[in-house]
Write a structure and sequence with these properties.
Elements lengths: L1 H24 L4 H7 L3 H6 L1 H26 L3 H25 L4 H23 L1
Helix pairs in contact: 1-4, 1-5, 1-6, 4-5, 5-6
Pfam families: DUF1304 (PF06993)
Protein name: DUF1304 domain-containing protein
InterPro entries: DUF1304
Length: 128
């Protein structure tokens, strides 16, 4: 079950790298504006905020990926700690988004699904 959790953690990390790219690199492009529902003017006005937020998503992804790699290298306790820290933070951010803006609930559910599955899988693995 731990392997399943690590796969979900890696998928969560990949999704957060994609979100990083949208927020920090592509924010003012039509694709990112369509994804986040912003106008060209809104995207330009919020560019610096989105850039910073994107890096938060990247750092969470790095945390989870480093944890997966450390577990694969045999450092189970340290690696799982990093995976839990990264995925729990991702899930926490998704819960905040879900609770704070009803129009963003689909995005929040997408953002939080893989981290939730990773954490649930780790919980099951700990019980077995």
């Amino acid at each position: 079950m731990t392997v399943v959790a690590l796969v979900f953690a890696a998928l969560a990390a990949l999704l957060h790298v994609y979100i990083f790219a949208l927020e920090s690199v592509l924010w003012t492009t039509p694709r990112a504006r369509n994804t986040f529902g912003t106008t060209a003017e809104e995207a330009q006005a919020t560019r610096q905020l989105a850039h910073n937020q994107g890096f938060y998503n990247l750092f969470l992804a790095v945390l989870a990926i480093v944890g997966v790699v450390v577990v694969a290298a045999g450092g189970t306790a340290v690696g799982l700690t990093l995976v839990v820290a990264g995925t729990a933070s991702m899930l926490g951010a998704a819960v905040v988004l879900f609770a704070s803006d009803a129009s963003k609930r689909r995005a929040a559910s997408t953002q939080g699904a893989f981290p939730l599955l990773a954490l649930l899988s780790l919980g099951v693995a700990a019980l077995v």
